[in-house]
Amino acid sequence: MSVRKTCNRCGEQISIRKMPNEHWIPFDYGTEEVHKRKQNQKNGP
Questions:
Q1: For the chain, what are the domain ranges?
Q2: Helix, coil or strand: residue 1
Q3: Model pLDDT for residues 25-37, shown as the tens digit of each residue
Q4: What is the DSSP string of 15-41?
Q5: Which pTM does this prediction carry?
Q6: Partner of 2 for a Cys bridge, out of 17, 32, 33, 35, CB 3.0 to 4.6 A?
């Protein structure tokens, strides 16, 4: 199961996916890479 949303920190589109161990992990939308929050001028560090 996955949910598409906007990252609260950097504003990028991400995909939150529920793993078999019941943890939710953020991925960059459309990729298999775990989302790393990027610094944004709007939201700061």
A1: 1-40
A2: coil
A3: 999 999 999 999 7
A4: EEEE-TTS-EEEEETTSSSBP-PPPBT
A5: 0.70
A6: 17
Cβ atoms of 45 and 26 within 8 Å: the answer is no
Both tokens of 39, joined, read: 């610094």
Flag residues of the chain having pLDDT under 70.
Answer: 39-45
**Would you give the DSSP letter of residue 12?**
-
Bridge partner list, 27:
15, 34
CA distance 39 to 11: 10
Closest CA to 1 of 19, 14, 13: 19
